[in-house]
Design goal:
The protein has about 90 residues and is mostly helical. It is built from four helices and two strands; from the N terminus they run H-E-H-H-H-E. The chain has a two-stranded parallel ribbon.
């Protein structure tokens, strides 16, 4: 994903098209909660995050809005990692 983002940014940059990516952590959607989340699995995952809160879909929305706004006008070829500071052991 990182390589594709950088390659596309290089290719489309001359046309002032910005290409960025978002690399999310474990986002707790309703489907995730119904199918896979247990108190034990959530506790184990959160114990590896620097920020102790679960990632919600709304957490992704802010990053997407930033990338779509003029505030990120000179940002391209980047991957935003939104994982709560997940650290694997």
């Amino acid at each position: 994903m990182i390589g594709l983002t950088r390659t596309l940014a290089r290719e489309f940059g001359p046309d002032r098209i910005r290409v960025n990516a978002i690399a999310p952590g474990w986002v707790l959607t309703e489907r995730q909660k119904k199918l896979w989340v247990t108190p034990e699995s959530l506790a184990a995952h959160l114990s590896r995050q620097c920020l102790p809160d679960p990632i919600e879909p709304a957490d992704m929305a802010g990053a997407v809005l930033f990338l779509a706004s003029a505030a990120s006008r000179m940002m391209t070829s980047q991957t935003l990692i939104l994982d709560g500071g997940y650290i694997s052991s």
